[in-house]
Amino acid sequence: MKLCLGTVQFGMDYGVQGAHKPSQKTTDSILNKAIENKIYHFDTAAVYGNAEEVVGSYFLRKGLQGQKIISKLPADAFDGQPKEKWKDIVLQNASKSFKNLHSGTLEAYLFHNAGYIFNEDAVKALHSAVEEGFARHAGVSVYMPAEAMKALEYPEIDIIQIPYNVFDRRLDKCGFFEKADEKGIEVYARSSLLQGLALMEPEILPENMKFASGYLKRFRKICESYGISLLEAAVGYVGKHKGIAYVVFGVDSQEQLKEYVSMRDKSVSDELLKKLEQEFEIVEEKLVNPTLWN
Q1: Which of 37, 77, 104, 227 is the most exposed place for a label (fewest CB within 10 A)?
Q2: Other CB atoms closer than 10 Å to residue 194's CB: what's the count?
Q3: Could you read off the pLDDT of 202-261 as tens digits, one per residue?
Q4: DSSP per residue over 52-81, as a string?
């Protein structure tokens, strides 16, 4: 599997367990280890606290160039603005990310607000970041299948970032991956741990998450029976998918990064893959949609 290091944790507290962002020293050690292990793809966003500045500062101090960095247009960028200004808004924001990251042309510039994908003028405005040389590709980070399917309709969009994990088969069922492959779309999968939920102990879930207890117990039981860790099963399941080009993952320590690197050349068995697919063929919407957790 190919890995893309997510940076949300570098700029803000994140996840259902409320992980705290690491210090600059820790972040530097993580990035050192990533580069050492030939991880050159990074995912960030203007709204991830000061993540862009943290990552950009590292690249500047180390004199590094050529990293493949994805950033995103703030989710409310077009809100209340006439569409005549949208192109300028994109270019202003892309330019800011470009300067913050000190890494040359961005690999891609994405909508962080997937709702914009339903507006053709918005998509054309986003693509101006490519036309003006701030990014090589334009894309969108989606949350729902309808958004992913809509994104496939635009020739301007060639990268789609999706949520995908062992519990979430929605995009398999609607034919997204086949259509993305036909159109040459590069798919990045985030949320392989469902914001950390997949690794949590069922017995100590917060009150608003107790509905997930049964799913987590079943997942743990399967992993135990196959002699595989929860992390290896969850990430390996996503990494084995033929329709996924990169697995976006987040860490807050060097040790966690080493775990992902060690999994890079491993693969879950076809038997385990089939078992997980069967076990979680049908799950409630609330489980796979974090916006419904509160």
Answers
A1: 227
A2: 24
A3: 999 999 999 999 999 999 999 999 999 999 999 999 999 999 999 999 998 999 999 999
A4: HHHHHHHHHHHT----EEEEEE-TTTTTT-
Task: Kindly report the length of the chain.
Answer: 294
Distance CA(262)–CA(44), nearest Å, equals 23
Q: Does domain 3-292 have CATH number 3.90.930.60?
A: no
Q: Helices marked H in the chain — which ranges?
A: 8-11, 24-36, 51-62, 86-101, 120-131, 145-151, 170-173, 176-182, 213-226, 230-239, 254-263, 270-279, 285-288
Distance CA 41, CA 260 (A): 14
Question: What CA–CA distance (Å, rounded) separates 109 from 18?
Answer: 27
Mean pLDDT of 37-44: 98
Kindly report the backbone phi and psi dihedral angles of residue 187, in degrees, each rounded to the nearest multiple of 5, phi listed first: -110, 125
Q: What pTM was computed for the model?
A: 0.95
Instruction: Check residue 16 and give its pLDDT.
Output: 55
Lowest mean pLDDT of 3-17, 73-87, 183-197, name the range. Answer: 3-17
Take residue 9 and report the two structure tokens written for it.
């944790």
User: Phi then psi for 217, rounded to 5 degrees?
Assistant: -65, -40
Residue extents of the structural domains in the chain: 3-292
Band of the pLDDT at 66, cuts 50, 70, 90?
Answer: confident
First to last CA, the chain: 33
